[in-house]
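Table S2 (continued). Query chain:
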Amino acid sequence: MELRQAIRQGLPFSALEAVSQQLDLSTQQCGLLLGIPPRTVARRKEARQLNPQESDRRSEEHTSELQSPCNLVCRLLLE
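Corresponding output:
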């Protein structure tokens, strides 16, 4: 599946789990870096799917903010 299409449909929650594990963070902490409230992270875990807005959160990879923790998480989610 093409990346753009995957983002439009919403990434699987396993993508957030994989990034969290790589960064040695909880999924709650990783969600906070993306601006996703803990209760929403819990709901997404149950549904096993992020919505398209959360999947595309802060994915502007061509900005000067690429080294911020939030953008690092987003870049890892998209890889």
